[in-house]
Design goal:
The chain has 2 helices and 16 strands. It is mainly beta.
């Protein structure tokens, strides 16, 4: 009986660790069709990180749908191939933490190779897969916007529904949709970073160059973030690249 309980406990811990590790990552999904709009079954999708050159592959199902979960934030290139079809490459696929990037593909007849920049496609940056509200503070904003505290989390104040918490308790916290400052859930790379004494952030990263982006969710977030009554703020640190510098 004790062995069974131990095995169950280890299984639950592994599930919880996996769930936490995915909160700082994004998702890439889409539908693959042919020139007539029919779905393509069994097509191969290769997703390659431009900075690290690491790649992953997936196969479209009976509905022509494919999906990559737990994708590290960054810029990617997606290559689509299928039997009887030419190769299609989509560049500048931007993946952000906590968001879903929808990349649909329409394959042409064999012998044709097409390269498309996804930022030129209408609606490519719209989030249609989830009702979550909030926004992502990207690397450019962290680098170019002034931050008196040197803490990129402070830039959450530029998003709708977030106001200053002056005079309130907590370390570098703020008010989200009128909730108390201590109702927020702060994280670093998906791991809890809440001050255990009062509220706010436990550890503050005051080097903007070390932060890739800050994912801020102010409402309608998934159940995995259910402990927060205010906002969910996740600081995502940089992972580096394949070039030595």
């Amino acid at each position: 009986m004790n062995i069974k309980r131990l095995v169950l406990l280890l299984a639950l811990l592994s599930i919880s660790i996996t769930a936490y590790s995915q909160t700082s990552r994004g998702t890439v999904s889409g539908v693959i069709t042919d020139a007539n709009g029919g779905v393509v079954v069994g097509a191969t999708v290769t997703l390659k990180n431009v900075e690290t050159t690491l790649s992953r592959t997936a196969t479209s199902n009976d509905d022509g749908f494919y999906r990559f979960d737990a994708v590290d934030p960054g810029t990617y290139a997606a290559t689509f191939t299928g039997t009887g079809f030419g190769e299609l490459i989509k560049t500048d696929v931007v993946v952000s933490g906590g968001l879903t990037s929808t990349v649909n593909a329409q394959l042409q007849a064999a012998g044709q190779q097409v390269t498309v920049n996804v930022t030129d496609e209408g609606g490519a940056l719209l989030q249609t897969e989830a009702p979550v509200r909030g926004g992502n503070i990207n690397t450019k904003q962290i680098t170019e916007l002034p931050i008196a505290s040197r803490n990129p989390v402070s830039l959450a104040l530029i998003l709708p529904g977030i106001t200053s918490n002056r005079g309130g308790l907590g370390s570098s916290t703020f008010v989200v949709n009128g909730a108390r400052g201590r109702s927020n859930n702060f994280m670093i790379d998906g791991m809890e970073n809440n001050d255990i004494s009062v509220a706010g952030q436990g550890l503050q990263i005051v080097n903007p160059d070390a932060v890739q982006e800050v994912n801020v969710q102010t409402g309608n977030y998934d159940a995995e973030f259910g402990r927060a009554g205010g906002g969910v703020i996740n600081v995502i640190t940089k992972q580096g690249g394949s070039d030595f510098h």
